């Protein structure tokens, strides 16, 4: 009669492991044992969750951040030699202050440096998480880093025949399905949240379009509208177009690897969540993927988020409960403080303990074959 925790990170607040640790501790105080599964759909916290699931070992490399400054970034290598790279470690929005954010200047060069470091450690398989970027360079910076360090010419045109990348396989973990450019492209949809002005958005979209035209002529193929090409400011495009990467739901990748469907067979309830849940949570994000798998086994799912919008839509999708941890009217700055998050979780657990006890009792009766007549 397990209570499964499958909660994504609360972006900019706490990691998946930290959030689940708080839930586990507070439920334990109520006499309820939980099974905590660190989660990610490829965005923030991807490295930690995937490394734990795949039993990887961390490696640290000195790379450029989005503004060309040196920074220490981590990736991991699994026992079978697969490199797990969270691109936000090198090009993340969080690496810049709000005043520094400028996607016209920001580069993915450091991501290429991480790939090179992994190649030199003998890695030939890569899992690349594309969330949380502060860039919109269509991956040109990443490609230039690869070319400068792995080819004699230093030109991205020669990456196609690069011996250093021979045999390398890239899998992109992302829930973003946007194309590289256009009305739903990287610049127009994601640029403003990275600091782009309307003028910058137009420039970035035009540059992406021009780079796609150059790349299409060079390689004889056009992946600008392949779903996921617009992820991480078009970094997805560079991986797909130049490195033959495939795109998969980050959530599904992780759930498959940990054997999630088998773990939940005897669960009484699954608690999932993320920092802000709304109708977009149903577009391939972790809570939706958890829900779909749970429904196959008739396991109820509670959705708990820092904040919730569109609760009726989420309930109609099948979540048995949809709850916001943050009290109405609380300022965001206060709500994201770790101490406040713990207090809000405590309040929520106090409200839901009796309902959880009821679910556990129902499952217990079912496993015992029903009550005596």
Could you characterize what this model shows?
The chain is α/β, with parallel strands linked by helices and 373 residues long. The protein is built from 14 helices and 13 strands. The mean pLDDT is 93.
Question: What are the key terms here?
Answer:
373 residues, 6-stranded mixed β-sheet, 5-stranded parallel β-sheet, 14 helices, 40% helix
Mean pLDDT: 93
Strand content: 15-25%
The strands making up the biggest β-sheet line up spatially as 3-4-5-6-7-8
Helix and strand sequence: EHEHEEEHHEHEHHHEHHEEHEEHEHH
Largest sheet: 6 strands, mixed
The beta-strand count equals 13
Q: Estimate the helix proportion, in percent.
A: 40-55%
Please compute the radius of gyration using only Cα atoms: 22 Å
N- to C-terminal distance: 23 Å
Question: Per the principal axes of the C-alpha atoms, what is the gross shape?
Answer: globular
The secondary-structure class comes to: alpha/beta
Low-confidence stretches: none
Tally of separate helices? 14
In short:
It is built from 14 helices and 13 strands.
In terms of topology, how is this protein built?
Elements: E1 2-7, H1 16-29, E2 34-36, H2 46-54, E3 57-64, E4 70-77, E5 82-86, H3 88-91, H4 109-120, E6 125-129, H5 140-150, E7 169-173, H6 186-190, H7 198-219, H8 235-243, E8 246-248, H9 250-257, H10 260-263, E9 267-273, E10 276-277, H11 286-296, E11 301-305, E12 307-308, H12 311-317, E13 321-324, H13 332-335, H14 338-367
Parallel strand pairs: 1-2, 1-9, 5-6, 6-7, 7-8, 9-11, 10-12, 11-13
Antiparallel strand pairs: 3-4, 4-5
Helix pairs in contact: 1-14, 4-5
């Amino acid at each position: 009669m397990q209570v499964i925790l499958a909660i994504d990170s609360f972006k900019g607040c706490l990691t998946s492991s930290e959030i689940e640790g708080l839930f586990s501790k507070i439920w334990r105080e109520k006499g309820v044992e939980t099974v905590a599964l660190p989660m990610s759909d490829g965005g923030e916290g991807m490295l930690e969750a995937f490394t734990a699931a795949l039993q990887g070992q961390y490696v640290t490399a000195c790379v450029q951040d989005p503004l060309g400054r040196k920074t220490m970034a981590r990736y991991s290598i699994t026992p079978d030699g697969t490199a797990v790279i969270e691109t936000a470690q090198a090009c993340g929005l969080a690496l810049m202050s709000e005043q520094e954010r400028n996607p016209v200047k920001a580069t993915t060069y450091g991501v290429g440096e991480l790939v090179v470091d992994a190649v030199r450690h003998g890695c030939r398989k890569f899992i690349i998480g594309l969330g949380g970027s502060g860039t919109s360079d269509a991956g040109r910076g990443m490609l230039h880093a690869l070319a400068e360090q792995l080819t004699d010419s230093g030109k991205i045109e020669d990456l196609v025949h690069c011996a250093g990348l021979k045999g390398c396989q890239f899998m992109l973990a992302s829930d973003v399905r946007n194309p590289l450019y256009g009305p739903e492209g990287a610049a127009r949809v994601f640029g403003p949240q990275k600091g782009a002005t309307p003028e910058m958005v137009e420039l970035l979209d035009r540059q992406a379009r021009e780079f796609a035209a150059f790349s299409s002529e060079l390689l004889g193929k056009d992946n600008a509208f392949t779903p996921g090409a617009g992820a991480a400011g078009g970094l997805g495009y560079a991986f797909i177009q130049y490195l033959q990467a495939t795109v998969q739901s980050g959530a599904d990748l992780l759930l498959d690897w940990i054997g999630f469907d088998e773990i939940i067979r005897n669960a009484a309830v699954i608690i999932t969540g993320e920092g802000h849940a709304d109708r977009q949570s149903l577009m391939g994000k972790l809570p939706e993927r958890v829900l779909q798998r749970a429904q196959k086994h008739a396991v109820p799912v509670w959705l708990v988020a820092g904040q919730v919008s569109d609760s009726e839509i989420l309930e109609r999708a099948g979540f048995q409960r949809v709850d916001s941890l943050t009290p109405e009217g609380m300022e965001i700055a206060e709500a994201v403080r770790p101490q406040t998050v713990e207090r809000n979780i405590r309040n929520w657990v106090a409200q839901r303990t009796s309902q959880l006890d009821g679910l556990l009792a129902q499952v217990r009766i079912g496993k015992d074959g029903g009550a005596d007549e």
